[in-house]
Design a protein that fits this description.
Helix content is 43%, strand content 4%. By secondary structure, the protein is mainly alpha-helical.
Length: 549
């Protein structure tokens, strides 16, 4: 497995991309510590380094400006949103939305594709850092409470990373790719005890084995946090509420709904006992501060500083509809119209996107009214520039980025309740949350399990637009994807993806460099989803015909 070796040049991946235009990058003033440096510095520095690593620009290419989408965890947030079909470029040149290939499936998504390589490599680099921290902890003869707390965080990191790998690479049955030969397979497990020889002949483990492994990491984290009585003072690393939330996510993936409910409920109890609260309307929509600084309900987040970002390789530079730097100033990210229309007229979250009727939103902006008037409909105003500084990337882009929020726990709990305690219970919890915190007029009337699940999923896609948290739920629930419909705001036909159940590229393929290094994977890759649903041949309002018999 290549994670054990120095990353060799993969410039060919970047060269193979079809990109339009170029903006000169400004490099960070400083670089984060290397993995070896973190390891040498000890457990404390290793954990702190992992937090920084989560938003490290040019992580995979080790500081080289190869591709500005290489920005650690935030790139997964954007990729997940694009995969869902919830985000489009609204500018005149969609080519500046470099993540669009996760949406359109127009470019190669095969083993040699950058778009499979980057998530795989990123997550296994995170895992190596967690493994280094865990190995350091195991080498401490008499660990103190502080050591146990840091170790618990490392186990939480590793569990989260394998959960994401499972969500991305475990295939689910679909209409467009034949997955019968790899059904039930996830990814290879690499731990702090895995040797390089073992890694080079390391098969994909089964769904059951991966779930068991992740839960064992979470159980160890829970045990250590409980022993020490740890209470988080900041949330740049997992705490016990996050551990319980991750358990809920894994149980949902495993369709263990009663267990998921119990875990989510406990996570809520722990988080609120530690002061967590829902984001308010002001925190959701403020022109100068929305999604720039962690609120009490951000249970886990990472942070950009002026020293660890360039003007292109940073989250705000990709996602802000107001920033004057980065690619968002050209791609103009916007929400899918059909998803926007699912919000009630009184839903606070409508103000995070530009309504065609500008007066309806009573918008706050760090720009001026002329800017809003000329902006594309449905432009994203969710992620603001820090302090309203839309001109200076090192100031406006220095933001906190959420990994997990309290809101997600309430929605996960609602689904789990509906699937384990009866539909009515799930609907009750969903209605209570939305009507209390987002839309006073909201009322879900679902009477079946599926309709209840779809209603929860819709709220997750709205609430976590740009954060990506809805992706694993969508892959489980298979809601269908309709991007070519009457009135669509998809900017061109390559975005016209109408897929039954799921998009086939919701399951990525294992990259070629890993197949070359790990012989146990040969012959056990996921099928290539490239153009299995072709937007250029879409029929308005109709799902593409399946190809799997």
């Amino acid at each position: 497995m290549k994670i054990f070796k120095t990353l060799y040049s993969v410039l060919a991946f970047g060269a193979a991309l079809s990109l339009t235009g170029c903006i000169e990058e400004v490099f960070p003033e400083e670089e984060h510590a290397t993995e070896d440096q973190m390891k040498d510095a000890g457990l404390v520095s290793a954990i702190n380094g992992m937090s920084s690593q989560f938003c490290q620009g040019y992580l995979v290419y080790e500081g080289q400006q190869v591709h500005e989408t290489d920005m650690a965890y935030p790139q997964l947030m954007i990729a997940f949103t694009e995969m869902l079909g919830d985000m489009y470029p609204g500018g005149s040149n969609s080519g500046y939305d470099w993540y669009r290939n996760y949406n359109t499936m127009n470019a190669s998504m095969g083993p040699s594709s950058y778009f499979s390589y980057l998530p795989w490599r990123t997550l296994y680099m995170f895992i190596k850092s967690a493994n280094d921290a865990i190995k350091t902890y195991k080498g401490i003869a008499e660990p103190k409470n502080e050591d146990k707390n840091y170790a618990a965080q490392a186990y939480g990191y590793r569990a989260f990373e394998y959960y994401l790998l499972m969500a991305l690479f475990e295939p689910v049955e679909n209409e467009y790719t034949d997955v019968k030969d790899v059904l039930g397979l996830t990814v290879p497990i690499v731990t702090d005890e895995t040797t390089e020889e073992q890694a080079n002949n390391n098969p994909r483990v089964s769904h059951d084995e991966m779930v068991k492994f992740i839960l064992s990491d979470l159980e160890e984290a829970e045990k250590l946090f409980t022993e020490t009585g740890y209470t988080a003072k900041n949330h740049t690393a997992p705490d016990l509420s996050v551990i319980k939330a991750l358990q809920a996510k894994v149980y949902l993936w495993d369709k263990k709904y009663a267990e998921a409910y119990t875990a989510a409920d406990k996570a809520i109890e722990l988080a609120e006992a530690n002061g967590a609260a829902m984001m308010t309307q002001s925190e959701l929509t403020s022109a100068n501060s929305a999604f720039t600084t962690a609120t009490s309900g951000w249970l886990w987040y990472t942070h950009y500083s002026a020293e660890n970002m360039g003007n292109l390789c940073n989250f705000i530079g990709w996602m802000s509809g107001e920033a004057d730097w980065g690619y968002s100033s050209l791609s103009r990210p916007m929400i899918d119209k059909s998803l926007y229309d699912k919000m009630g007229l009184n839903d606070y979250r409508r103000k995070q996107f530009l309504d065609p009727d500008r007066q309806r939103g009573d918008y706050e902006t760090c720009r001026d009214e002329e800017y809003l008037a000329a902006a594309p409909n449905y432009l994203a105003l969710k992620f603001r520039c820090a302090g309203g500084d839309y001109q200076t990337y090192s100031k406006g882009g220095a933001v906190d980025v959420p990994i997990m929020r309290l809101e997600e726990l309430y929605l996960l709990r609602a689904e789990a309740a509906g699937m384990s305690q009866g539909v009515a219970k799930g609907v009750e919890l969903l209605n209570k949350w939305v009507s209390t915190y987002r839309d006073p007029a909201y009322k879900c009337k679902a009477t079946t399990e599926r309709d209840m699940q779809l209603a929860v999923l819709t709220q997750m896609r709205i609430e976590f637009w740009g954060e990506g948290n809805a992706f694993p739920s969508a892959k489980r629930i298979k809601p269908g994807v309709m991007q070519y419909y009457e009135g669509t705001n998809a900017p061109s036909n390559i975005f016209y993806i109408n897929a039954k159940g799921i998009k086939p590229n919701w399951t990525l393929v294992i990259p070629q460099f890993e197949l070359d290094a790990n012989k146990a994977l040969v012959g056990h890759n996921n099928p290539d989803p490239t153009k299995t649903v072709d937007g250029t041949k879409a029929k308005k309002g109709e799902y593409a015909e399946g190809t799997v018999k």
